[in-house]
Write a structure and sequence with these properties.
Blueprint: H1 2-14, H2 18-36, H3 38-51, E1 54-56, E2 71-73, H4 74-92, H5 105-125, H6 130-153, H7 157-179, H8 199-219, H9 224-239, H10 244-260, H11 264-279, H12 281-284, H13 287-298, E3 307-308, E4 311-312, H14 315-333, H15 350-384, H16 389-408, H17 418-438
Antiparallel strand pairs: 1-2, 3-4
Length: about 450
């Protein structure tokens, strides 16, 4: 029987494309790992978050309502396979459990329901292409699965260390690959991002990881120098993403970290350095970075530019501002439930996109979800922050990173970008379980 199964599998692989064969093999490995060892499955998933190739479905809707192809990656399939396997295992072994109760569950359920309900209404109204709408909503749910899986997997402090180590090594590898792109004179992006790459997405990811590393540099003597060295490497890659939304988020992180860790003298120093940097930007910043920032107001005059505070804004920012205004108009037309996910024009702004696609109902659930996330971060900071510098660093870095991403989301769809949200919800789960594992003895008394 085993021989026949292997023969059938080899026959199937030999008659399919290399890309599909790779997916089948990775899926089979993920399935086996998820059933045999949950921790290994999570490690496998962390590696795939930034290092998995994409599969372009080539699906675009007419009329520009979607504006981009629906892009799937190997980690999308792998996460689905792991979650299904995890579900089956939890049914077979009931002591494992499926969804632990957390303060975030209710917010996740409401947010998911709002996205699904608005999209179904959009399908009925003819605004949403069913295939695109379903795939996008499914991708929104993916990162919640990561949160629940990690919450169910972590049982001790050593697991948290191992997960964070792998996540930081992935950040190091992706940054090293990105740095090799700098001599080409292009905006750097993560590996396997397609033909044109997504520098803004990569900038948001690095912003979050830099926030965590920055917290360890400020707080933890044991890991200060390794975190500083790794942070410098990530900072180089981050700088050359030339992502203005990421730069704005970085300013918030630089202020939030000293405030959260009560380094008030450092906070004052950050503000002073920031003011000096503004005055000497052209002399201090790399030429590419300064030109990118200055381009916002120095682009040659064009008819499509918007005037803001008496200055002409570059065409890219102008287009965002015009779409933001249009999103408000769209929201006023369908204020309760919006047009559905992918039911309106593509817009690179999380808040305005949420308003136009899911209306007041979906936008409220999104804000409620962010509130719960911050509540979890502050709860952990209060409970375990004084017990060990590492715990304070992880929780403070997560909170500062969340604030940074909230600013990044003004000019990006940050909280629905899988390559940003997968690491975000991984760390969110670790921060949530931290008080539980810290207050639980590593060994049971004899």
């Amino acid at each position: 029987m085993l021989g026949m199964t292997l023969y059938a599998a080899m026959r199937m692989l030999s008659t399919t494309s290399t890309e599909h064969a790779l997916i089948y093999i990775i899926g089979a490995v993920a399935c086996i790992l998820a059933f045999l060892n949950e921790e290994l499955a999570v490690h496998f998933l962390i590696i795939a978050m930034l290092l998995s190739p994409e599969i372009d479905t080539g699906s675009k809707t007419e009329g520009g309502t979607l504006g981009r192809a629906v892009t799937l990656r190997v980690d999308d399939f792998m996460l689905l396979i792991i979650c299904v396997t995890w579900f089956i295992k939890s049914v077979l072994y009931k002591e494992i459990g499926l969804l632990k109760h957390t303060p975030l569950n209710g917010a996740m359920y409401w947010y998911s329901f709002a996205a699904l309900f608005s999209t179904m209404l959009g399908m009925l109204a003819g605004n949403v292409d069913p295939k695109s709408g379903f795939l996008f909503v499914l991708k929104y749910f993916e990162y919640f699965m990561i949160f629940w899986m990690v919450v169910n997997t972590v049982r001790d402090k050593d697991q948290i260390k191992r997960f964070m180590f792998v996540a930081l090594m992935v950040a190091l590898l992706t940054s090293a690959i990105a740095i090799t792109q700098i001599p080409q004179g292009v905006r750097v992006s993560a590996p396997f991002e397609g033909e044109h790459g997504e520098p803004n997405t990569f900038g948001g990811y690095l912003l979050f990881m830099l926030s965590i590393l920055g917290a360890f540099v400020l707080i933890d003597n044991e890991y200060r120098w390794p975190a500083a060295i790794l942070g410098l490497i990530l900072l180089v890659a981050f700088t050359y993403t030339l992502s203005r939304a990421s730069y704005l988020g970085f300013i918030v992180v630089a202020i939030a970290l000293p405030a959260l860790t009560r380094r008030y003298i450092l906070l004052v120093a950050v503000i002073i350095v920031g003011l000096v940097l503004i005055l000497t930007a052209q002399q201090v910043l790399p030429t590419a970075v300064y030109d990118r920032i200055a381009f916002t107001v120095n682009q040659r005059s064009q008819s499509s530019q918007v005037t803001l505070l008496g200055r002409r804004i570059d065409t890219s920012t102008s287009a965002r501002l015009l779409y933001m205004q249009a999103a408000i108009d769209a929201f006023l037309q369908k204020p309760l439930f919006g047009y559905g996910v992918t039911g309106w024009h593509f817009l690179d702004s999380q808040y305005f996109r949420s308003l136009s696609e899911t209306g007041l109902f979906g936008f409220s659930t999104f804000i409620f979800l962010l509130y719960r996330v911050m509540q979890v971060g502050f709860t952990t900071l209060r409970k375990v922050g004084d017990q060990d510098p590492k715990y304070l660093a992880l929780s403070a870095g997560f909170l500062a990173g969340t604030f940074g991403l909230m600013v990044h989301a003004i000019g990006s769809n940050t909280f629905i970008i899988v390559r940003v949200m997968e690491p975000f919800w991984l760390v969110c789960a670790l921060v949530y379980v931290l008080p539980q594992v810290v207050m639980t003895p590593d060994k049971e008394p004899a």
